[in-house]
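Problem 12. The chain below contains 290 residues. Write out its predicted structure in C-alpha cell notation.
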Amino acid sequence: MAELVAKRRIGVHLGTAGGCWTAVNRAVEAGANTFQIFSSSPRMWKAADVKPDDARKMRDLRSEHGIGPVSIHASYLINLCSQTESVRVSSVAAFRGEVERALALGAEYLVLHPGSWKGLTREEGLRLAAQSIERAIDGLAWRDADFKILIENTAGAEFSLGGKLEQVAELVECLKPCAPVAVCLDTCHVHVAGYDIVSMDGYIETMKLMESTVGVDAVKVWHCNDAKAAMGSKLDRHEHIGEGTIGAETFRKLLHDDRFAHCAFIAETPVDAPGDEARNVGVLRTLAAG
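Solution.
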C-alpha cells in the first residue's frame, strides 16, 4: 500500500507570491508531488509575460524535487463561447496568453472552463468554443511540448458548456484534429451536476458513463474537492476533503481506482487557515494508503 501512495500524484492548488517558481517550494512543504497554479491573476484580462529566469527556476526545482505534472488553471474571465463578439475576442487573446505562459513554464496541463453559451443554442456554443480554442493556439509551438489543454466539466449551471459529461466529450472530439486536448474532471462539479459518485452503485454507474463518453485515457487530472452543496444542486462550493456532502469514502474509491492510476489528483479546497493546503494533501494521502 505504501507503494500505491508513493506512485499516486497528489497535490493542491497553490499561490505564486514571489514568482510562479515559488509554488514548487510550497508544494514540497505541503507534502505534494504535483500542483496547480494560476499563471496570472484569474480576474484580470492582461497579464505579464513569464520571466525566463522564473521559468528556469521552476524547471530546476521541479527536477530537484520530482514534482509533476504541473497544471495551470485558466482565468475565470475567459468565455470562448460567448454570444458577444467583443467578449470572445478578449477571451481568445487571454487564452492565447495562458497557453504561451504554460508553454514558457513547462506546464503539462492548462485547465479550461469553456464558458457560457447563454443566448445561443448548445450546438452554437460548442462550435464557437472549438473555433475560439483553435484560433487562440494558431501558430504557437505546442506540438514541440509535453502539453495538453484540459477541458473541465462544470457544475451544471444553465448554459454552462461542460455541465454534462457528453458535452465535455463532444468538445474534446471537435478539437482533436487541431489541438492537444484531454480532460479534467472535478469531483464537486460531478456531484452537484447530479451524478451520483457517493453510493457504490452510483459510483459504478457514473464511471461507466464517464468511460463511454470522455473515456478513461482522456482524463489526466482529477480536481479533488468535497462539496458544500447537495448532489444535483448545481452550486459550485468547494469543501475540505471528507467534510462535505461527498465524503471521504468517495475519494478513497477514486484514489484506489486503477483506471485512474495515470492521473494527477489535485485539491482546490478552501484555505481557511495556514496549513490547510498540507492538511488536505495529507487527507488524500491517508485515503490512498487505506
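Discussion. The chain is about 40% helix and 15% strand. Students who got a different answer should revisit the alignment rule from Section 12.3.
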